[in-house]
Amino acid sequence: MATETNDLGPLPKRITGGCLCGKITYEIKFPENHNFAESSGTCQCTQCRKSTSSLFFMYHRVPYSSLTWTSPSLSTHLKNYYCSEGRARGFCGDCGTFLYWRREAGPNISVAIGTVDPLYLFGEGHEATNGEVPKEGFGKALAYGGGGHEWVKNEIKGVTDDLKIVGAGKDGRGERVLTE
């Protein structure tokens, strides 16, 4: 059952997600002490822009041990691309969906928010969950953006430098070095 918090709304105990073609799927079971506010963030580095085809990469970081790949033929479809040594960008080799960024020597994985199933992200189909998922889903808890902004030196003046979710405005902005 979801629990309420003041700022983030209901918090999930678990979520599922996967790629566009459905050949790669996962489940995340959140640790009891998971800090949802500090685990979501964005990155505006050129590598993230290119691999996501978006102005910024929105992620939710979890311990890798919390993620279970549920695809029967994962090794056939999951591919990794290495822009930087020891840092994997995971994607589906069939449909091309970007799934995660991961420092292979670290304990965490940054899962692409867009790969979370609609039920958990915005509540599509919540009626069938017997209260496990609220009407609005868990999008705010998963995509709050309060965990930092990995790289803002590449902000686009007049476009991404003004978006609250990527650290603009009175909330401030700043480059954060990724620590795992």
UniProtKB/TrEMBL annotation:
GO molecular function: carbon-sulfur lyase activity; metal ion binding
Superkingdom, taxonomy of origin: Eukaryota
Coiled-coil stretches noted in the UniProt entry, renumbered to this chain: none
UniProt KW Cell wall biogenesis/degradation keyword: no
Record carries keyword Zinc-finger: no
Alphabetical keyword list: Lyase, Metal-binding, Zinc
CENP-V/GFA domain segment(s): 15-136
Matches recorded under InterPro entries: CENP-V/GFA, Mss4-like_sf
Short name of one Pfam family: GFA
Family: Belongs to the Gfa family.
Name of this chain's protein: Mss4-like protein
Organism from which the protein derives: Podospora australis
Species classification: Eukaryota, Fungi, Dikarya, Ascomycota, Pezizomycotina
